[in-house]
Amino acid sequence: MTRRSIVLVVLATVVLAGCAGTQGTGTPTAETPTEDASGVEIEEIPGVSNETLTNATALVQANGETLVETGARLEVVQTAAETNTESVFTIGSTGTYTLTTTRSASNGQSGTIDYWSNETATYVRTQTNGETQYRSIDRQPGTLDSFNRTLETYLAAGTFTVSNESADPTTVVLTAEEFTAPDDGGVLSDTSSLSGRLVLSQSGQVQNLTVTGQENGQSVAFRYELLQPVIERADKPAWVGEVPPSAKLHPDLTVDVENSSYLVIENEGGDPVPRNATIAVEANGTNGTATFETALDVGETRYAYFQTSDGTFTLSADQPTADMAASVDSPLSVRVTTSDDVSLYSASMGWASASADAESGSSGTAGDE
Fold first, then answer.
1. Are 219 and 84 in contact (CB under 8 A)?
2. Are 79 and 185 part of one and the same domain?
3. In sequence order, what are the beta bridge partners of 305?
4. pTM for the full model?
5. Under a CB-based contact definition with an 8 Å cutoff, are residues 305 and 263 in contact?
6. Which of 12, 92, 144, 318 has the maximal Cβ count within 10 Å?
7. Contact between residue 325 and residue 308 where contact means Cβ atoms under 8 Å apart
8. pLDDT digit string (tens) for 49-104?
9. Is 188 in contact with 176 (CB distance < 8 Å)?
10. Domain termination residue (choose one: 199, 229, 259)
């Protein structure tokens, strides 16, 4: 399942009401916009025409403009057969934001990732399998784009028409019984019997979007809800004070396996790997840990291997000879961690793999040369 994030698109789109013909012998007058039972002028809602949502893009743009201007707190819940995901996103009108996403699986595993971003930096906390990791990165405003694209995808997939069931005089309800499952790899991609319910304000701010369906006899749902409008600043969470100093380090590390025996660790850019950082390797059912006695600066290389003589795991600036390094079988996992427990590199690799899944953002490769 693809995870989504939220972007705020600063564009305004206004759908104007049409004009009527003449009445009797008088001068032409503008036709009164359609109203539903709530009193909302439906044709003035961006993207809505003839009591139908005809332009999902215009609606999402209007919604995003409001979020940027006034700030808000949103909740997005995706319920699937095997995995549930809940995200709470708070953006202040100053541009600060917090985002917390929790994923829980039917096998009992769960994990949470938190973000806090001010005007200059973004801090990240990841909690999974009882382990907590922190990172500090430059502020990246575009990281929320995919969330807004998901909202637009679900809006465009249904035929939403006014239902006149709103009890709130400031909102209008649209429902969709005709719905095409989005082919986006998301929670609703493989569902059937889809239906949707959309609640809008006259300005085009989405109060709630709920889409439900069935997958293999189980209920599947996507829900987007505005929890709180108008927030000036997203408060700094207490956990940001726990972020260690080395969380801001970002070395560009590559790790290769050569001759199915020793690892080549290279720092190709970014920050140095600090002195006293550790490298941990698991291979052949054996764990090995060693310490960087000196910093691994940009352009430098280290070699890690299990000694053939006694199995001792060694980290050295010198390349081992063929008889020094014991053979290792695929797969292999490697992790580089600072003394204050910040993961600079984490990857699992197999000999036939062209790349590894590096959690740190560095790429890991493995080859038999």
1. no
2. yes
3. 314
4. 0.76
5. yes
6. 144
7. yes
8. 999 999 999 999 999 999 989 999 999 999 988 899 999 999 999 989 999 999 99
9. no
10. 229
